[in-house]
Amino acid sequence: MTVIEAPAPAFEGDERVVRRRLGPGRRFRGAFWIGPAVVLALWSAGSATGLIKPAILTAPWDVVIAFQDQWVNHDLLGNVLSSLARAASGLAFGVVAGGVLAVVSGLSRAGESLIDGPIQIKRSVPTLALIPLFIAWFGIGQEMKIVTIALISLVPIYVHTHNGLRGIDGRYAELAETIGIGRGEFVRHIVLPGALPGFLLGMRFAVTSSLLGLVVVEQYNATAGIGHMITLAEQYGQTDVIVVGLVIYGVFGYCADTAVRLTARRVLAWRQTLEG
After folding, report:
1. How many independent structural domains does the chain possess?
2. Which helix (H) or strand (E) holds 264?
3. pLDDT recorded at residue 209
4. To the nearest whole number, what is the mean pLDDT of the chain?
């Protein structure tokens, strides 16, 4: 008679191995750049073989030449810094306002009654559709552009932070009451850290949204910025310069999103998830 031995009990280390085998696998160094590198390789191969016509999309090497020309003979650095200043200012205002509103609404029933309804109404109205109204209120200068970017960034910060606050297990509150922790300590040490994953997720959406707003507002009477450069290139039919601007926008967004993801991984190292 064949004897079948029972499997050895799974210890903590074994469980880690199983989770790693069933999850996404071991992380590669520099994995953030693999996808963009593949896209660049396909773009280069398509341009070199003629599958991608220059009239459709400028070849990467022509984009590099146009970038050098804009850097040496035009004020590309000034345009980049101008765009970054607009995006950073609008994003900062949006993050602060969205975070404060989310905390007030998430920690207070009265605050939720006053704040959550208008924010949900705002979600159904595209911010870019409000630009004509903002022009009437703030003019066509820098203030309108920053307000637009801030309002676009505010919504994802509010929504995800508010969801993070409301999603905290109520048993933590019961435990805090049992051991006599005050409301202030409970909010500082349990509620806000518990809402941090939602806030950082909202940051990823807010960064992308701020760049979307930047692309649009820089088409309105901008005297500097990547959008201004693209507008001039469109008037003169300089497709390569347009692609330079689009690539810079893409690099902005990808680097900002990567920075938020790396920050989240370090700050939330205590969480056991498939990502980390």
Report:
1. 1
2. helix 239-267
3. 86
4. 79
Structure token pair of residue 208: 């992308």
The CATH number covering residue 106 comes to 1.10.3720.10
In a domain, residue 151? The reply is yes
CB distance 116 to 105 below 8 Å: yes
Burial of 52 (0-12, 13-18, 19+ CB in 10 A): middle
d(CA 131, CA 148): 7
From residue 171, alpha-carbon distances to 174, 175, 190, 191, 226 in Å are 5, 6, 11, 12, 50
Instruction: Measure the N-to-C terminal CA separation of the chain; round to a whole number of Å.
Output: 47
Q: How confident is the model at residue 29 (pLDDT cuts 50, 70, 90)?
A: low
For residue 227, tell me if it sits in a domain.
Answer: yes
DSSP string, 198-249: HHHHHHHHHHHHHHHHHHHHTTSS-SSSHHHHHHHHHHTT-HHHHHHHHHHH
**Which residue in 131, 122, 117, 130 sits closest to 156, CA to CA?**
122
- Residue 103 confidence class, pLDDT cut points 50, 70, 90: confident
Task: Confirm whether 105 is domain-assigned.
Answer: yes
DSSP class per residue in 61-83: HHHHHHHHHHHHHS-HHHHHHHH
The Cα 47–Cα 42 span in angstroms is: 8
**Number of alpha carbons in the 13 Å side-chain half-sphere of residue 206:** 32
Cα 224 off chain centre by: 24
Which of 46-55, 62-71, 154-163 is least confident?
46-55
